[in-house]
C-alpha cells in the first residue's frame, strides 16, 4: 500500500508503482491503467 498526500494526483504517485510491483512480484510484465494515467510510466 502506498499513501500519498491528498494534493498529489494519482497519476503522479503512480510513477513509483512499477518498481514496487517488480520488487514484490517479479513475474509481472504488464500493468494496465485507466485514461487518468496519461503519459508513459515505463521507458
UniProtKB/TrEMBL annotation:
This is Transposase. It comes from Nonomuraea helvata.
